[in-house]
Amino acid sequence: MKPKLRLDEKEITKARQAAKRIAAEVDDFIAERTTVAVERTVLRLMGIDGVDADGVPLPNVLVDHVQEREGLDCGVAPWVINASLQLRVSPQTVAEQVATATIDLATLPWAEEEVIRTQGKSLATTGLDRIEVRRRERERLLREWGEGRQPYLYVIVATGDIREDAIQGRAAARQGADIVAVIRSTGQSLIDYVPFGETREGFGGTYATQQNFRMMRAALDEVGREEGRYIRLCNYCSGLCMPEIAAMGALERLDVMLNDALYGILFRDINMQRTLIDQSFSRMINGYAGIMINTGEDNYLTTADAVEAAHTVLASQFINEQFALLAGLPPAQMGLGHAFEMDPGLEDGFLLELAQAQMARQIFPEAPLKYMPPTKHMTGNIFKGHIQDAMFNLAGIWTGQGVQLLGMMTEAMHTPHIHDRQLALENARYIFNNARHLGDEIQFRPGGRVERRAQEVLAKAVTMLEEVERIGLFQALERGMLADVKRGLTSGKGLGGVVKKGDRYYNPFETEMRRRLDLPQRKEASGNESDTGLEARQTLWRHS
Predict the structure, then answer these.
(1) Cα separation, 182 vs 231, whole angstroms
(2) Is the CATH number 3.10.20.30 carried by domain 239-433+448-455?
(3) Do you know which InterPro entries this protein is assigned to (predicted)?
(4) Annotation marks residue 263 as catalytic
């Protein structure tokens, strides 16, 4: 898309450079730490799955086992690989034996580190090859079936029952949806494990599980085959299990995942250290799997005014872009978020919305921007709501957004019914068809309201990013600079799951993914001063 607004390229460069330095500082912090969720993800990528007799997922059982023995600073991989080598069994069998208290990993002799790393590389190769097969499968189906044109028509299902979700997802796909998202059950982002198997009793949504992913993938492929059009599946890997769900999505060929570096901190009160560490590994997995991420800047405008806080959305987009690049996720997979959330009673509000949407499109030209519909100012008047959604759709096609999450005229009343989605899809298809090339034909007046607004928002975003760079992202979050929400460095949920890496930390999957994605390897962890080493610790355990 050719630039339509005269934006100061020097200001855009300043914003991007500030965001790059902000992200780099946080990345240095991340490099020295891991989390229980990252380590559970390593186990899932090794092929470990299932639950123990009490229904606790085996990845949780193993990570807890190692953490109780104060050995997680080395990563969970060396412990499991060593046990697998010593007992000559698979990692899955190691997990099952730990779950039944048949073995204690701390009592086993240690193999040579070189041997452990050789086996780790082999396991990582096998695990990542499984993901690569699913990525190639998506690419093949896209070639064979084709897909809808951008902006993709994105709708949600949220019944709580995966079987009903499959029915509604197939219906939405037949009605014209390009992306079907399964909303997660209320509160799942705050539980520190991933439920196992098929679930039929969610609240406000359906639990994200690997079996549920598998069922929805099969349902949408069924329609895709019938329609001759690939249907993308979306779910949510935010929350305390962010990287685990990213891995499960990669293994089950999900196409889109909600994955935001800041959303969980601001809107779910998850500890900022935990979230930022988890997002790095989860984005690496998404990048490798060819999954488009969606970020959640649109949520800022539900707690702050959309006119006054517009620059915070742009600033966050810049930061999210840099975090994604550090994780090896290319711009073509960055569904950076923003929203049509200004008060509809505002004079020239539509012009301000156009300014925001066009500005984002020009600044992030390769990103399939995710445009969110009006929600905050929906009233329950379904006729007015339908008009608000129509104006949102017009802004989306005019400015060339990538993903259009369709608004529902009953937004303020209830979870959408099938016929609500049908009307929303008809609305979008009608406007997209009739205004497909509107943006090619209309230029914004130089110095006019739209251009001045975009320049103002960009300038404020630059000022904000330079301030965040000066004080650091952690301090900015503590001050409430984003979404008018304040969070503490050591407050929030999940801090106990953050672990400082020791001298011998090893994550074979990150090492191999970094190699395949052509990313620099992490520097050796500095380690804890109190680290006594694996062998010394093992001797201590034996004597105690």
Answers:
(1) 13
(2) no
(3) Cbl-dep_enz_cat, Lys-AminoMut_A, Lys-AminoMut_asu_sf
(4) yes
